[in-house]
């Protein structure tokens, strides 16, 4: 143990590094370990009554065993320093330089030692005889990012940075007494990688819809220059290429997912307009994967020079199927707007060439439910535009002035109106806000009717007849709002959810249109006519989907059709029954897949693999074509009864949350063919738009900036954003929330 030395003279003002505490005179360490500035104090010196040992400060008069303090660490002899008492020459201490966290000393010859990098195993000179090379070159290898392994694994390997000491620090007074310093907290260091920086810039632009030209914006250039002076900003062409490269890399991964989809894929088509009069078709794919989870991904954004033509949608779908090699896997197409009969015929004719049509194409084309509801709501607002305008003015009068609102609240309290709704101005681009404004104002109509008596500035109040019309309007908007609100869920709802909603709307609007009250019939007639078109187009698909729900099956179809069609209900019920049986026969007739080497049991566990030596080579499917045909012929009656057995079994109890896809997953061994059909049907989307656009009243339009880019770049930016955002999101289907008195 070293001989105690004379304590160092403390500085006059006890200077210390900011945000750290001073060490008391008795030598105890508070919060952080005290060390001396590296360039000003030798690695092996004594400071006061304390000896610096690596990252530890040990009192000089303490008895410390080498085995306890330095297990497995190489020791070096301490050298005397000026202005300090010489320590015992035989004492060794732990190397305190930070480089020894990343280097290991190895003896290569007698008297010759080298430092080997723990990362890349590169060897550097350290000592030869009594000559020591020092550690500066070792620090540069680590801190400057020249280690090749660090560059390759910079995300996983975080190195402690080396900061050069200030030239003015180290000595506190004229006598050369060193100031006391403290080790600051280690900050993770990421080696500079210009290629990774380019990649992150492209991801940032994709994820946040930044313009590609931002790499040329002076403000952004200045920011990056100060953030990392070593980075040379890329050009517009370079970042455009990087974004496309990101898209292609992600597309390869999505392509593998699409190839593994066990069932069919449904598409949605959403036509966007532009100021150039060209259209952009957003094509989204929806499917249920092998884990029975429902997914939705944007597959293509295709520019159509003539968006109003009868061939625009068929051309876009053909391009998508070819791009993703999905010929033969398409189940249905949902379009965001009503299209002409000629356009539908073109679509069916094109797809029938390489894609087998389901039920002769009866389920191929469907309309967007969200767009239909939005269009009906807008028609209703337009029909009562004068009344809606008066209510909007009244709400604006109250909400845009504090004094007006105070008078309104005071009058409400005097009249003891029980309404708890809050008035709010509507956003004309979101029809749900107009509905909520009318609903809140309707509950406060008594206050508005008396407001002109207490506030003479309030004029043009809605009349009694106006309020009656508002109440009627809100009554029928509510059923539209409740249905549309299901589409705003963060999870993807399955098709069966919307049969109950659709038949309720059809029933209520049909009754209202036939009402003897002219104020009701005149308002709802147009609404009923528009929804009736949707109902006729999508009724069969929605009915088959709800039959696949074991809580309802055909019973809900029979019940609802009786309400809607009365005596003619049996005819429409028969159409659904025949349709679902014909569809099931199409699935029975599908070629039998090759038997897998293992199968899963009903509980999801894997069964043991068959002994390959115990079966012939024909077990792999070779030479068994005739056998497959025999199986299909002899089991057709049995396969058909699989559907009949399902329909004849008792209904499951209705619960608040029910996972219909999960139920079919659990029962796929009991219903092997029917479960495949159910998986395809339940994946059919009823809406073509995202949740945040369900209530939108404006048509989608491509902005001018994107229109200025190449169509391939536009597609890359939009698709890559969708894929990157959903890369780590496990999207599950929404549970069915339905209670039907039967």
UniProtKB/TrEMBL annotation:
- This protein's GO CC annotations: nucleus
Source superkingdom: Eukaryota
Which UniProt keyword terms apply here?
A: DNA-binding, Metal-binding, Nucleus, Transcription, Transcription regulation, Zinc, Zinc-finger
PROSITE patterns this protein is in? Answer: ZF_BED
Tell me, in one coarse class, where this protein mainly resides: nucleus
Q: Name one GO molecular function term.
A: zinc ion binding
The cross-references to InterPro entries, in alphabetical order and at most eight, read:
hAT-like_transposase_RNase-H (IPR025525), HATC_C_dom (IPR008906), RNaseH-like_sf (IPR012337), Znf_BED (IPR003656), ZnF_BED_domain_contain (IPR052035), Znf_C2H2_sf (IPR036236)
Cellular compartments annotated: Nucleus
Ranges for region Disordered: 159-180
Where's the BED-type domain? 94-154
Q: How does it assemble?
A: Homodimer.
Q: What is this protein called?
A: Zinc finger BED domain-containing protein DAYSLEEPER-like
Supply the gene name: LOC104238369
């Amino acid at each position: 143990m070293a001989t105690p030395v004379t304590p160092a003279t403390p500085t006059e003002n006890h200077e210390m590094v900011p945000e750290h505490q001073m060490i008391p005179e008795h030598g105890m360490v508070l919060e952080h370990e005290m060390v001396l500035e590296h360039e000003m104090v030798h690695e092996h010196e004594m400071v006061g009554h304390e000896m610096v040992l690596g990252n530890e400060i040990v009192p000089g008069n303490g008895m410390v065993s080498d085995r306890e303090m330095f297990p497995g660490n190489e020791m070096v002899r301490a050298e005397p320093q000026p202005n300090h008492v010489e320590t015992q020459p035989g004492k060794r201490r732990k190397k305190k330089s930070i480089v020894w966290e990343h280097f290991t000393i190895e003896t290569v010859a007698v008297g010759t030692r080298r430092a080997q990098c723990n990362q890349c195993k590169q060897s550097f000179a350290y000592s030869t005889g009594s000559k020591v090379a020092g550690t500066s070159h070792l620090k540069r290898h680590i801190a400057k990012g020249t280690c090749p392994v660090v560059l390759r694994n910079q995300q996983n390997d975080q190195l402690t940075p080396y900061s050069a000491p200030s030239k003015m620090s180290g000595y506190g007074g004229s006598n050369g007494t060193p100031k006391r310093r403290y080790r600051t907290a280690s900050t993770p260091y990421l080696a500079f990688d210009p290629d990774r920086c380019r990649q992150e810039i492209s991801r940032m632009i994709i994820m946040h819809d930044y313009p590609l030209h931002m790499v040329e914006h002076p403000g952004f250039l200045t920011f990056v220059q100060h953030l990392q002076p070593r980075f040379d900003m890329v050009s517009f062409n370079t970042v455009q290429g990087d974004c496309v490269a990101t898209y292609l890399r992600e597309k390869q991964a999505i392509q593998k997912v699409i190839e593994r989809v066990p069932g069919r894929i449904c598409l949605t088509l959403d036509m966007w307009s532009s100021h150039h009069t060209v259209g952009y078709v957003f094509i989204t794919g929806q499917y249920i994967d092998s884990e029975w989870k429902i997914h939705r991904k944007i597959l293509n954004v295709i520019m159509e020079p003539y968006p109003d033509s009868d061939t625009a949608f068929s051309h876009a779908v053909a391009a998508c199927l070819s791009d993703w090699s999905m010929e033969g896997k398409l189940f249905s197409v949902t379009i965001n707007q009503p299209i002409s009969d000629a356009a539908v015929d073109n679509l069916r004719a094109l797809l029938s060439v390489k894609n087998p049509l389901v039920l002769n194409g009866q389920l191929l084309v469907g309309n967007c439910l969200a767009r239909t509801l939005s269009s009906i709501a807008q028609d209703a607002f337009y029909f009562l535009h004068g009344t809606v305008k008066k209510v909007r003015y009244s709400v604006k009068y109250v909400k845009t002035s504090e004094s007006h609102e105070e008078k309104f609240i005071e009058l409400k309290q005097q009249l003891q109106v029980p309404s708890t709704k809050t008035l709010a101005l509507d956003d004309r681009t979101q029809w749900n806000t107009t509905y909520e404004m009318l609903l809140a104002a309707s509950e406060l109509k008594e206050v508005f009717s008396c407001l002109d008596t207490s506030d003479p500035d309030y004029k043009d109040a809605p009349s009694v007849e106006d309020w009656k019309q508002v109440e009627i309007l809100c009554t029928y908007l509510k059923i539209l709002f409740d249905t549309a609100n299901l589409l705003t869920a963060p999870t993807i709802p399955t098709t069966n959810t919307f049969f109950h909603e659709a038949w309720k709307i059809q029933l209520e609007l049909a009754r209202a249109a036939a009402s003897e009250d002219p104020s009701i019939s005149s308002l709802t007639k147009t609404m009923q006519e528009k929804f009736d078109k949707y109902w006729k187009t999508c009724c069969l698909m929605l009915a088959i989907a709800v039959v696949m729900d074991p809580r309802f099956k055909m019973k809900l179809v029979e019940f609802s059709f009786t309400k809607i069609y009365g005596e003619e209900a049996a005819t429409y019920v028969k159409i659904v029954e025949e349709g679902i049986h014909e569809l099931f026969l199409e699935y029975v007739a599908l070629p039998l897949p090759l038997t897998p080497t293992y199968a899963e049991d009903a509980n999801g566990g894997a069964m043991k693999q068959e002994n390959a030596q115990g079966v012939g080579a024909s077990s792999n499917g070779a030479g068994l074509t005739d056998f497959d045909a025999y199986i299909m012929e002899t089991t057709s009656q049995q396969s058909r009864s699989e559907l009949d057995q399902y329909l004849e079994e008792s209904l499951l109890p209705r619960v608040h949350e029910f996972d219909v896809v999960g139920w079919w997953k659990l029962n796929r061994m009991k219903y092997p063919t029917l479960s495949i059909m159910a998986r395809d049907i339940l994946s059919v989307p009823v809406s073509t738009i995202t949740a945040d656009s369900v209530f939108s009243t404006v048509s989608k339009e491509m902005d001018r900036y994107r229109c200025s880019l190449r169509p391939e770049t536009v597609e890359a930016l939009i698709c890559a954003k969708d894929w990157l955002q959903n890369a780590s999101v496990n999207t599950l289907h929404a549970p069915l929330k339905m209670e039907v008195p039967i």
